[in-house]
């Protein structure tokens, strides 16, 4: 592949990643957001997560899987409790999972009913930088465990 094409693909990937992270950051911060139309003929259909009209909590089990998220400190040694976790299905259109959970004392959040397919998990805490893991695969009637290393925000030294 030509070097110039690789750069274009890399830049486009960074742009998509940053856009998704900004959208999830706004959602995790509980800011209001507008609903996005699901018209498949629209050029923007599938570019932003929408509220899921087919709530995964009501779908048949053969279309669902389980996702377990564990948040750890930046060294990957200690669990980090109280982190808000969100899931976005990467199908067309992208679908925001209806539940956002906080991690428990062991740094765990369990999503027992998630639509099977490709998804992204993001986590953010009041003292931690947002962390995402993208392009994860979930098969129907299976489970997937995601470990996210949380980095603490910088604080002023000595204060």
UniProtKB/TrEMBL annotation:
Gene source species: Myxococcus fulvus
Please state what the protein is called. Answer: Carboxypeptidase regulatory-like domain-containing protein
Signal sequence span per UniProt?
none
- Superkingdom is Bacteria
MF terms (GO), sorted A to Z:
carbohydrate binding
Q: Where is this region: Disordered?
A: 35-59, 140-159
Q: What is the lineage of its organism?
A: Bacteria, Pseudomonadati, Myxococcota, Myxococcia, Myxococcales
Mind telling me which InterPro entries this protein's record contains? Carb-bd-like_fold, Ig-like_fold
Q: Which residues form a coiled coil?
A: none
Q: What UniProt keywords apply to this chain's record, in alphabetical order?
A: Membrane, Transmembrane, Transmembrane helix
List residues traversing the bilayer: 6-24
